[in-house]
Automatic annotation (TrEMBL):
Organism field: Thauera propionica
Recorded family membership: Belongs to the phosphoglycerate kinase family.
Gene3D superfamilies: Phosphoglycerate kinase, N-terminal domain
PANTHER family per the UniProt record, alphabetical: PHOSPHOGLYCERATE KINASE, PHOSPHOGLYCERATE KINASE 1, CHLOROPLASTIC-RELATED
Annotated protein name in UniProt: Phosphoglycerate kinase
Subcellular location: Cytoplasm
Lineage: Bacteria, Pseudomonadati, Pseudomonadota, Betaproteobacteria, Rhodocyclales
């Protein structure tokens, strides 16, 4: 794809699609601003180079045609202004134009998902938006898995279409890890359900040297390898799929290192009493809620020897202290590893914050669904649209 820093933006009207879909509390206060901060380098580049800058994003999943009180980007405009040290004007009705932006100025265009036709990638809407600018920049990696008018259609009609700095960094980091990794390549896929990560597991089983599974996913794999898991969360209907993944890995000399010891309790609660036992001692009423210390040590060793690490999902119920040991030890191993590591997904980001290792992870993706779809090996429509323009 063409990149923003290859383009002369001086005196040009630049339209940036960012992903500023940030979490807010009930009063509308932004509780986590990573995505706004991640959008700054592209905006700053455009401002420093004398462009007139328009930015838009979706926020939430509003009903098209109205901007409800929870839908407005007003709090985002305030935060962005603080980060850019200049006022950021919010433009309410912008699709038809009629507003002015001067070179060196930046405006935020209200929630693009409130425009009728955005989600269906309406061509008329995309053409109108394209007519507002000289250069279209897609910097919304977090929304790259959606083919909407601001992420896809507009890229076909704008005079120039390119990837912003964040989009470029995300594509580079993920491609490096998945398509040209330093080996061994180790993936950690945790979470509660195999079903929600089945495509990722299958796609990674083809590429990685070690596939560490955690949480409910590991339980289904334990079942597949003939272990008893008591009342642990698992999907018995996917045992065959888990078996096939293990067979596929084995056939090419790769492995799925399963837990040898586990932490169990009879309930998932803050008061639950945790027991560390061998995986062969799991009783009929036990629930596996974390990996045990022997397993954590083994996984840490694998991580220490890795060349590249891809991390999505915890290996235990890390929100509760008595079941956080495994995820904590893995986080620490990733932080100390020489490997290039990438991490993404809501739970993973929460674990990174909890164990204070953000500085030590090679690359933290701003994508949730987009990160997962990239791992699945899917072509993300927003990136495909930029590629098509580049090769045309
Ligand atoms: C996200 O938060 O994953 C992105 O902003 C995409 O949001 P969406 O799932 O509502 O399209």
């Amino acid at each position: 794809v063409k990149k923003l820093n290859e383009i002369d933006v001086r005196g040009k009207k630049v339209f940036i699609r960012a992903d500023l879909n940030v979490p807010q509390d009930d009063a509308g206060n932004i509780t986590e601003d990573t995505r706004i901060r991640a959008s700054i380098p592209s905006i700053q580049y455009c401002l420093d180079n004398g462009a007139a800058v328009m930015i838009t994003s979706h926020l939430g999943r509003p009903t098209e045609g109205t901007v409800g009180p929870d839908d407005t980007l007003a709090p985002v405009a305030v935060r962005m202004g603080q980060l850019l040290h200049r006022p950021v004007r919010l433009i309410a009705d912008w699709v038809e134009g009629g507003f002015e932006v001067k070179p060196g100025e930046v405006v935020l265009l209200e929630n693009c998902r409130c425009n009728v036709g955005e989600k269906k990638n309406n061509e008329e809407l995309a053409k109108k938006m394209a007519a507002l600018c000289d250069v279209y920049v897609n910097d919304a990696f977090g929304t790259a898995h959606r083919a909407e008018a601001t992420t896809h259609g507009i890229a076909r009609f704008a005079p120039v279409a390119c990837a912003g700095m964040l989009m470029g960094a995300e594509i580079d980091a993920l491609s490096k890890a998945l398509h040209a990794p330093k080996r061994p390549l180790v993936a950690i896929v945790g979470g509660s359900k195999v079903s929600s990560k089945l495509t990722i597991l299958k796609s990674l089983a083809d590429k990685v040297d070690q596939l560490i599974v955690g949480g409910g996913i590991a339980n289904t794999f334990l079942l597949a390898s003939g272990k008893r898991i008591g009342e642990s969360l698992a999907e018995p209907e996917l045992v065959k799929e888990a078996q096939a993944i293990m067979d596929m890995m084995k056939a090419r000399g790769a492995e799925v290192p399963l837990p040898v010891d586990v932490v169990v309790a009879d309930e998932v609660s803050a008061l639950a009493r945790a027991n560390r036992i061998s995986v062969d001692e799991v009783g009929p009423h036990d629930r596996i809620l974390d990996v045990g210390p022997k397993t954590a040590a083994k996984l840490s060793e694998i991580i220490a020897n890795a060349g590249t690490i891809v991390w999505n999902g915890p290996v235990g119920v890390f929100e509760l202290p008595q079941f956080s040991g495994g995820t904590k030890m893995m986080a620490s191993a990733i932080a100390h590893s020489e490997a290039f590591s990438i991490a993404g997904g809501g739970d993973t980001l929460a674990a990174i914050a909890k164990f204070h290792i953000a500085e030590d992870v090679g690359y933290i993706s701003t994508g949730g669904g987009a990160f997962l779809e990239f791992l699945e090996g899917k072509t993300l429509p927003a990136i495909a649209a930029l590629e098509e323009r580049f090769s045309a």
